[in-house]
Design brief:
By secondary structure, the protein is mostly beta strands. The protein has one domain (28-143): OB fold (Dihydrolipoamide Acetyltransferase, E2P). The chain is 13% helix and 36% strand. The chain has one helix and six strands; from the N terminus they run αββββββ. It has one helix at residues 7-25, and strands at 41-51, 63-73, 82-88, 101-108, 119-120, 131-143. Strands 1-2-3-6-4 form a five-stranded mixed β-barrel. The longest helix has 19 residues, at 7-25. The protein is globular. The N and C termini lie far apart (57 Å).
Length: 145
């Protein structure tokens, strides 16, 4: 006799399988180190050039996507053209922010801090640069395309 699974268990099984597939084919999230020469926090203004698509739902699971930001203004200590950011679903549908000018304060991700971002979906290769995470209530849209 086959038992019927509750719908919530089926959804959970689907999400777990989806995460395994994504984890196998996604570029890694690079964590910062205390001695890597990159600043711990950065307040920036830039344009969202690329994003990782994330599910629309935010609430039952915590999702985060990634964004590649072309910097207009940044920290004097961060001398790169692009910054890679983990953005939680709580800031809104990040797929809607492509080509938008944004202002945010971010902190360098570490192995200890990454858990607060939940399931991270990443399709962006940071080419060895550390990812930063958007600090709570420190994200603002300045303009659209």
């Amino acid at each position: 006799m086959i038992k019927r699974l509750k719908p919530s268990l089926l959804v959970l099984a689907f999400l777990l399988c989806q995460n395994v597939i994504l984890a196998q084919s996604s570029p890694p999230i690079i964590y910062g180190q205390s001695d890597d020469g990159f600043p711990r926090t950065i307040k920036l203004v830039g344009v969202v050039e690329e994003i990782s698509q994330v599910p629309d739902a935010c609430g039952t699971s915590r999702w985060s996507g990634t964004m590649k930001i072309k910097l207009n203004e940044g920290s004097r200590k961060y001398k790169r053209e692009y910054l890679y950011v983990v953005a939680p679903c709580s800031i809104g549908r990040i797929q809607d922010y492509r080509e938008f000018v944004v202002e945010m304060t971010v902190s360098k991700l570490s192995a200890n801090s990454v858990s607060k971002y939940g399931n991270i979906i990443n399709t962006l290769d940071s080419e060895g640069l550390p990812f930063y995470g958007v600090l709570r209530n420190r994200f603002r849209i300045l303009g659209g395309p």
